[in-house]
Amino acid sequence: MSFNKTVLIVDDDPEINELLTMSLKREGFHTVSAYTGAEALRAAQQHLPDLVLLDVLLPGMDGFQICSEIRKTSNVPILFVSCKDEATDKVLGLGLGGDDFISKPFSPIELIARVKAHIRRNNMPPKPEEQIDETLVFDNLLIDPAAHRVLVDNKPIALSAKEFNLLLHLAKNPNRVYKNEQLFSLLWDDFHMGDTHTVMVHIYNLRKKLEKNPAKPHYIRTIRGVGYKFNDKPAETAE
């Protein structure tokens, strides 16, 4: 799976950048290095990497800003690699469209394993039950799996790959209640197990993008003490 896969490494520390480069090349990856935000954005457009390793503390444009810019045009997996290890930083990074958060100092073996897992998952063919062209319509919400697009009031909504997959899974199983752990196992790799912030942040982002009033969501409901469900009732007959 790693053959001919390209990883963009964004870190202003030459030693860490070189360490990541050597570790990845030993596993057969191609690598591209960037040391600033501007270099990272140019490299992302020019090389179209299969995954981005992104430091947070960079001169000028920080990693969170870079992630936001990349997410405007690409669903490439983004793994933050940072010495910022607070929960708020992880929540922010995941909320902006990041797929994982690895703290420094890190184990090169674990980092490589995560890189492979994310690239493998991103390149997996759809499961048989997901190979459908049926468009799902709920009130003012349209989900088109074949075109990988979402419309609200006929206006396109930009979602990350994880956000789209989470929404699609919930919408295909309306009114079924899912625990956080179930959504983890369905949509994230094993490295995320136990990090409940991951699902919470993606649900929060979906509500901001889909709901007229995210504080009182119509589509994605919280079942207190249990998890989440997708409500398929029209707004005028909703609970």
TrEMBL record:
Q: Chief localization class?
A: cytoplasm
Listed under GO biological process in this entry are: regulation of DNA-templated transcription
Q: Which domain of life is it from?
A: Bacteria
Q: Which Pfam families match?
A: Response_reg, Trans_reg_C
The residues that make up the annotated DNA-binding region are 133-232
Response regulatory domain boundaries: 6-119
| Cellular-component GO terms for this entry | cytosol; protein-DNA complex
Its localization reads:
Cytoplasm
Domain (OmpR/PhoB-type): residue spans on this chain = 133-232
- Alphabetical list of InterPro entries matching this protein: CheY-like_superfamily, OmpR/PhoB-type_DNA-bd, Sig_transdc_resp-reg_C-effctor, Sig_transdc_resp-reg_receiver, WalR-like, WH-like_DNA-bd_sf
Report whether Transferase shows up as a keyword of the record. Answer: no
Name-wise, this protein is Response regulator transcription factor
